[in-house]
Structure prediction request, 91 residues.
Amino acid sequence: MRQFNSLTTWLFLTGHTLKTAATALGITEQQVIEYQNGPTPLHIELACAALYHRIDPWGKTRAGKNGNRALNQLHRAKIAKLAAQTFKPEG
Prediction:
């Protein structure tokens, strides 16, 4: 009995065509075919799982937005600290 890889299973369960699958995954139709016939990279398997479970991209989630906001604040604080050290008056 033939074993199907995870991408082929995802295509079957979701009813995607090569074109819609390629668009959803951000890859070409040729890559979809290659990944069906050979090993599927982990990032594609994870994308399939996220799409199947309707998980939003990281940047659109609350955790992603909060994380980005925190990093931006940290970045600004670091720049301010470096600027203060750089322009410290001699004396």
